[in-house]
Amino acid sequence: MKNIVRLIYLSSATRDMSLSDMKDILTYARKNNQSLGICGMLCYDNRYFVQALEGEREAVNELFFHISDDARHSDVIITSYEYIDKPTFTEWNMGYAGSTPIFTELLARLSQTEFEPTKLPPKQIYALLRHLSAHQQKV
Ligand code: FAD
After folding, report:
1. 66: number of CA atoms within 13 Å, CB side?
2. How many angstroms separate the alpha carbon of residue 20 from the centre of ligand 1?
3. Which atom belonging to ligand 1 lies closest to the Cα atom of 49?
4. Helix runs in 15-121, H state only
5. Which among 32, 35, 46, 73 could disulfide-bond with 115, CB atoms 3.0 to 4.6 Å apart, if both were Cys?
6. pLDDT at 90
7. Ligand 1, from 28, 60, 139: best to mutate by most atoms within 8 Å of Cβ?
8. Which residues are in the BLUF domain (predicted)?
9. What CA dihedral angle connects 93, 8, 6 and 70, to 10 degrees?
10. Cα of 110 from ligand 1 centre, angstroms
């Protein structure tokens, strides 16, 4: 039986996040996710976070409940949750993409001038994360 899931959520940052704020999150996440066997991709722009978490179901569920309690964001909404044959973001315990020209170009293809993930269907959010994972920022 398959027990690997991909959970994608979006949320609103409770304040503007600097690169140093993102570094704090990512440094912790990368270490912890490695020990949990979880991989994924985080993106931040226009005060929105979007994150994909992939791994064993119980580990992903537990981590997500922990993350959703974090005071650095609010209005956490799961946009998709599905069983998968194998993870997509295997190269990264947590990849990262923020505001870059490529991000802007991808948004334009989705008819967005600024990042509004609440207005994107789940499949487009996943596709966006996949594209962004190939153009990560080194944070
Ligand atoms: P503690 O260090 O005890 O902190 C408790 C609370 O203090 C946190 O929940 C947070 O509200 C606040 N806090 C902690 N550090 C800071 C800081 N530097 N600045 C401001 N407030 C702070 N963790 C992972 O392990 N894997 C992930 O993939 C992951 N993704 C995340 C994505 C987002 C968008 C956010 C906001 C956080 C993410 N985290 C992730 C971090 C996670 O939410 C917890 O902060 C982390 O797991 C530490 O948990 P703790 O209970 O030991 O926190």
Report:
1. 10
2. 14
3. 34
4. 19-36, 57-68, 101-109
5. 46
6. 87
7. 28
8. 4-95
9. 60
10. 31
Ligand 1 — pocket residues by CB below 6 A? 24-25, 28-29, 32-33, 42, 49, 51, 63, 66-67, 69-73, 94
Q: Show me where the domains of the chain are located.
A: 4-133
User: Among candidates 100, 117, 7, 132, which has minimal Cα distance to 57?
Assistant: 7
CA atoms within 13 Å, Cβ hemisphere of 31: 5
How much is the pTM? 0.94
- Reported as a single tens digit per residue, the pLDDT across 3-44 is 999 999 999 999 999 999 999 999 999 999 999 999 999 999
Q: What is the pLDDT of residue 98?
A: 85
Cβ neighbours for 137, distance < 8 A, ≥ 6 positions apart: 96, 97, 98, 100
Q: How far apart are CA 26 and CA 24, in angstroms?
A: 6
Tell me, in angstroms, the distance from the centre of ligand 1 to residue 105's CA.
30
- CATH top class, domain 4-133: alpha beta
